[in-house]
Write a sequence for this structure.
């Protein structure tokens, strides 16, 4: 077949009208979600409500952590119940690095000296690299199992981290570790709530763009096939295991970076960030928003934190209502908030 | 046997008390369709599993174009040129037909750890995929999700996926299963045209198709090859008639 044949026979961009209007709707919902997240804290900041700016930062970072998890669960079909391990490790890297920078003591004294740092850039790099390495080790073992066993083994690894942090007195043990001064970036004042929010927002947008780009690439095609039908992938000659492992590592890197920022937002890191509640919360957000939907984690995080704030103000049993909402989503709206707002995902 | 594309030598596989494969040796030569037939429970699926790589034989060896592949994984065998289709169609249903075939092209090119360039604009993936679909007369369905295809069309997609790998040998597991007479006739025609390009080891229940297509036939009963020959010889073989054709 020659080239001119191919182009006439492949109706690539010319989507039929209903699909095109659906496409517009999805785009509008995505832009709308980002606009709400960006404009609300801007308005709050200029009206002097710093609390709401920090709330928006919190939503942004939880959404970013869930974007990472969504790459594993939604796009890779790997139901990790242990992503708190990376979120918490990212947080502890920010905390420990700041602690030693404050003290002028090295993080590691031997065999080579690693000084503490209050530079966010150094902390982010460390969080990405170390969370990637941790995920490489955990994933290499966990991905030999599937289904319920995979869920349990990822949970077990995260709980190991949790108990380890709990019982390590140097960094506060169960009391956690305060970050007295927010870590810094060149040229900007990270202590300003809006500046910090914009940093978080940039992180979220980057992680969304990265996920979208990856999923359109050859790697994304292989990962999609590993989720939908790994026999087909192996029969084609691509071993599913390394594809899944690499996706798992990228997923953990995104969640870990969100964790490092989250510790800086709160000025505090504790074993709570490593606990299975955190893993569960991220998972709930992914499911609420719509599993395997690019903007699902953002929609889910908005809904989750809003419910926590609004219902949490009315009753301390707000999680009962969260449970009901989740039940509704699982039973009646399987494609989550994004499925409800933007219609069902359709592959081309 | 030196020119055999695929050859099995003395394969044995036992599951507990059941000897599922008993000293099976057979080969696939260029330009031929070699059919493997046998009643239910004869061990056909176990044998295919061993050829494709999902099941490890207890003893014996498998060679593809002279190279021993007995210890290789499913993916490694596919990369060496073993294409296969499944008895129960095994495709990604939500994806379009062309996406299912494109993953095979991608595998053939060997570049799956590329994270940046979008595949939907990648002509080097699309063109060979559409070519394979054209071979299977499925070009008009390229953008349709597999979930919307008929049973027969899915079978054709399976073969197109295997073809896109530019295989040295094709392993087709009951490609006619569940097809109507029209679908069977169509696929028979397509396979007949294909065999000079790539030899086919055909596992099939449809006797008419087997007798029409196969250059050679091996009959598997209770794990052993009990007869081997061309259509006429197999039809006339009393052992085969008793074990298989008679009932």
């Amino acid at each position: 077949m020659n080239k001119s044949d191919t182009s006439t026979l492949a109706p690539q961009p010319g989507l039929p009208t209903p699909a095109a209007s659906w496409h517009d709707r999805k785009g509008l919902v995505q832009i709308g979600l980002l606009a709400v997240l960006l404009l609300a804290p801007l308005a709050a900041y200029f009206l002097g409500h710093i609390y709401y700016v920090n709330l928006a930062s919190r939503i942004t970072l939880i959404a970013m952590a869930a974007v990472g998890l969504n790459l594993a669960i939604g796009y890779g079909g790997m139901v990790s119940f242990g992503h708190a391990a990376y979120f918490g490790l990212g947080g502890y890297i920010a905390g420990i690095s700041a602690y030693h920078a404050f003290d002028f003591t090295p993080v590691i004294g031997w065999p080579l000296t690693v000084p503490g740092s209050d530079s966010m850039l150094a902390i982010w790099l460390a969080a990405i690299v170390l969370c990637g390495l941790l995920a490489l080790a955990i994933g290499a073992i966990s991905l030999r199992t599937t289904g319920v066993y995979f869920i349990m083994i990822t949970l077990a690894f995260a709980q190991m981290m949790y108990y380890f942090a709990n019982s390590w007195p140097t960094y506060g043990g169960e009391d956690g570790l305060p970050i007295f001064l927010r870590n810094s970036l060149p040229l900007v004042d990270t202590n300003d709530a809006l500046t910090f929010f914009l940093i978080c927002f940039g992180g979220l947008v980057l992680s969304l763009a990265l996920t979208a780009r990856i999923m359109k690439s050859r790697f994304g095609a292989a990962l999609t096939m590993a989720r939908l039908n790994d026999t087909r992938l192996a029969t084609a000659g691509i071993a599913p295991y390394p594809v899944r492992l690499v996706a798992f590592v990228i997923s953990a890197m995104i969640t870990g970076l969100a964790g490092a920022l989250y510790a800086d937002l709160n000025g505090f890191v504790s074993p709570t960030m490593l606990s299975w509640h955190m893993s569960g919360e991220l998972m709930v957000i992914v499911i609420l928003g719509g599993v395997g939907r690019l903007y699902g984690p953002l929609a889910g995080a908005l809904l989750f934190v809003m419910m926590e704030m609004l219902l949490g103000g009315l009753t301390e049993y707000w999680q009962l209502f969260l449970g009901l909402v989740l039940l509704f989503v699982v039973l009646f709206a399987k494609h989550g908030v994004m499925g409800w707002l933007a219609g069902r995902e359709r592959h081309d | 046997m030196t020119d055999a594309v695929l050859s099995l030598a003395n394969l044995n596989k036992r599951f507990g008390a059941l000897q599922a494969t008993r000293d099976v040796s057979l080969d696939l030569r260029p330009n031929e369709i070699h059919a493997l037939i046998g009643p239910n429970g004869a061990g056909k699926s176990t044998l295919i599993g061993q050829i494709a790589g999902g099941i490890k034989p207890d003893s014996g060896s498998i060679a593809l174009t002279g190279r021993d592949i007995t210890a290789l994984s499913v993916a490694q065998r596919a990369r060496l040129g073993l294409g296969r289709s499944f008895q129960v169609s095994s495709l990604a249903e939500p994806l379009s037909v062309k996406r299912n075939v494109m993953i095979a092209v991608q595998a053939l090119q060997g570049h799956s750890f590329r994270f940046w360039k979008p595949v939907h604009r990648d002509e080097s993936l699309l063109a060979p995929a559409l070519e394979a679909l054209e071979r299977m007369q499925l070009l008009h369905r390229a953008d349709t999700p597999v979930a919307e295809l008929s049973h027969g069309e899915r079978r054709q997609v399976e073969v197109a996926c295997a073809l896109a790998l530019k295989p040295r040998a094709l392993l087709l597991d009951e490609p006619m299963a569940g097809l109507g007479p029209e679908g069977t006739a169509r696929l028979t025609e397509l396979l007949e045209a294909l065999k000079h390009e790539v030899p086919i080891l055909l596992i099939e229940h449809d006797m008419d198709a087997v007798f029409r297509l196969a250059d050679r036939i091996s009959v598997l009963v209770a794990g052993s090859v009990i007869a081997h020959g061309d259509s006429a010889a197999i039809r006339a073989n009393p052992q085969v008639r008793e074990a298989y054709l008679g009932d």
Observations:
- Chain B has a mean pLDDT of 90.
- Chain B has two domains: 1-81+167-247, 91-166.
- The first strand of chain B starts at residue 6 and ends at 15.
- Chain B is about 35% helix and 25% strand.
